[in-house]
Specification:
Layout: H1 3-76, H2 85-99
């Protein structure tokens, strides 16, 4: 065998192995990509379902808190339940000041 024959054999063997390895890796990548795409699709659907539940719970909690605040504010503003001493003090203080006839309004005259 001559040296050129071995060179051709080496080049031919290198080309054959490179093609075989390239073909194997391409097939493996296609299979892995298909599996990854299927997994990503499943995870995206599951995550979307979880996001919807999360938003529903958060909006529900927010609505409950807002309604509770509104109800408590309206309930505390009713005059039927305003018999506490602090409210009576404020009410009497303001009405007493308005009823006084001899209130000095010009402080510079003092």
């Amino acid at each position: 065998m001559s040296a050129s024959h071995w060179t051709n054999l080496t080049l031919h063997l290198e080309e054959s192995l490179t093609n075989a390895l390239g073909h194997y890796l391409d097939n493996w990548r296609r299979n892995a990509t298909a599996a990854d795409n299927a997994l990503d699709k499943t995870l995206a659907e599951e995550n979307f379902r979880n996001v919807i539940w999360y938003l529903a719970v958060m909006i529900g909690m927010f609505a409950f808190i807002i309604v509770a605040m509104l109800v408590s504010t309206v309930k505390s503003k009713r005059t039927e339940h305003s018999n506490d001493p602090y409210h009576q003090y404020i009410k009497e203080d303001w009405t007493a000041q308005l009823q006084q006839g001899d209130v000095i309004t010009n402080f510079a005259a003092i």
